[in-house]
């Protein structure tokens, strides 16, 4: 329970923890940030690690001169891209093994074929948009791998989405993170970054499920 509380406190006050780490350990902060972003995007069981809020705080620290803006952006784009590649590879390698028996309760051939068709048609925009959705950005590349989306297509949208996500949010933090109102309400902004995309995803899933119901059902 103590570990969970510490993780929640870290997520909600990532600015304080990160600034303290920079002050005490200097350039080692880059290794820590690379690790967090890589794990958050690359390990399907770690979707709860901070992503958007962490990038925003990194930008704010860059704006204060405590970190290098160009190096942070380049490093974290690399972490995000490599994380997604790792996640995709895990899904592509282990997905078919889990579903190797067509008669098993874990395998639904029709659902698999639908997922494959969906990712071949809409997977690109899904990979890009999922970058901005907590939890979804961890599962989207894994599902793309399971659905056997081609590596070439996945990689293109992986780099595109990672660049837009990291570059956009770090830059926002760089320009707006030092504004007094933003600093005073950063905890609320972090909550909004977590909850708003989640609500959008849930609403979209509910609407899709509602539309999928047969008429009169």
Automatic annotation (TrEMBL):
Membrane-spanning residues: 27-49, 56-82, 122-144, 156-177, 189-208
Membrane topology: Multi-pass membrane protein
Cellular component, GO annotation: plasma membrane
Domain of life: Bacteria
InterPro entries xrefs: DedA (IPR058127), DedA-like (IPR032818), VTT_dom (IPR032816)
Similarity comment: Belongs to the DedA family.
NCBIfam families referenced in this protein's UniProt entry, alphabetically: PRK10847.1
Main location: membrane
Location in or out of the cell: Cell membrane
Name of the protein this chain belongs to: DedA family protein
A Pfam family that the UniProt record links to this protein: VTT_dom
Keywords (A to Z) from UniProt: Cell membrane, Membrane, Transmembrane, Transmembrane helix
Boundaries of every VTT domain copy: 49-174
């Amino acid at each position: 329970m103590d570990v969970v509380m510490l993780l929640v406190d870290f997520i909600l006050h990532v600015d304080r923890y990160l600034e303290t780490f920079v002050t005490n350990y200097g350039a080692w902060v880059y290794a820590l940030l690379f690790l967090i972003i890589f794990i958050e995007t690359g390990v399907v069981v770690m979707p709860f690690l901070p992503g958007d809020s962490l990038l925003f705080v990194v930008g704010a620290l860059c704006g204060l001169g405590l970190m290098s803006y160009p190096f942070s952006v380049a490093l974290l784009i690399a972490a995000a891209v490599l994380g997604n590649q790792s996640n995709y590879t895990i899904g592509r390698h282990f997905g078919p093994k889990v579903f190797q028996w067509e008669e098993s309760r874990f395998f639904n051939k029709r659902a698999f074929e639908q997922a494959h068709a969906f990712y071949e048609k809409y997977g690109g925009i899904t990979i890009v948009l999922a970058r901005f959705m907590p939890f979804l950005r961890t599962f989207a590349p894994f599902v793309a791998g399971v659905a056997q989306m081609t590596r070439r297509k996945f990689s293109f949208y992986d780099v595109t989405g990672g660049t837009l996500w990291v570059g956009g949010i770090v830059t926002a933090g760089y320009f707006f993170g030092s504004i007094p109102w933003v600093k005073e309400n950063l905890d609320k902004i972090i909550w909004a970054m977590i909850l708003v995309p989640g609500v959008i995803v849930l609403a979209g899933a509910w609407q899709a499920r509602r539309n999928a119901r047969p008429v009169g059902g």
